[in-house]
Amino acid sequence: MTRPSIRVRTPSELRAQRRRRPPRCLGHLCAAPLWPLHNANLGTLLRTCDAAGACLAVPRLPWVPEALARGNTLRRPACVHWVGDPPAWLARRRAEGAHVLGVELAEDAVRLADLPMARRPTVAVLGHERDGIPPEALDLLDAVVEIPMVGTGASLNVAVAGSLVLYKLAGFA
């Protein structure tokens, strides 16, 4: 029995088949790790934002620009929004009509598998890796999504959790 031949697509073929990214930020989809703990996660999440056609909102902390620069291996500038006051920024985005979705373990959370594709501007809020989303920001969420796990850990790191949620919101999963 012969196996079918697997043909790997070239980088130029892959680029030609990708969805076209708008030339500027439209604010449709945004990952917001507003309370980061580890700098390596920000660079990884920045790459996922680029792949999913999303922006990244990060806090104005002294170490964040260097973390993004080190992790950014993209050939063009990424869409990064700098946030001075996370709760105030979330409140403004919500007032502008964005759907503010928290990635958190909470009652009445939507399971990741049941999360629909984003049909309106959506902010995926990612909390601190140890403490989650702070209480003052929980009241600003429209909904919460939970990533089910079977292992012994309580949560995934911010880059992995954000990547899973972004791909689902972008309609890729």
From TrEMBL:
Highest taxon of the source? Bacteria
Q: Which residues form the signal peptide?
A: none
- The UniProt record lists the tRNA/rRNA methyltransferase SpoU type domain at 38-167
- One GO molecular-function annotation for this sequence? RNA binding
Keyword terms of this UniProt record = Methyltransferase, Transferase
Keyword presence, Ligase: no
> Which Gene Ontology BP terms does the record give?
methylation; RNA processing
Which SUPFAM superfamilies does the record associate with it? alpha/beta knot (SSF75217)
PANTHER family named among the record's database cross-references: RRNA METHYLTRANSFERASE 3, RRNA METHYLTRANSFERASE 3, MITOCHONDRIAL
- Specify the protein name: tRNA G18 (Ribose-2'-O)-methylase SpoU
**What is the species listed in this Swiss-Prot or TrEMBL entry?**
Thermocatellispora tengchongensis
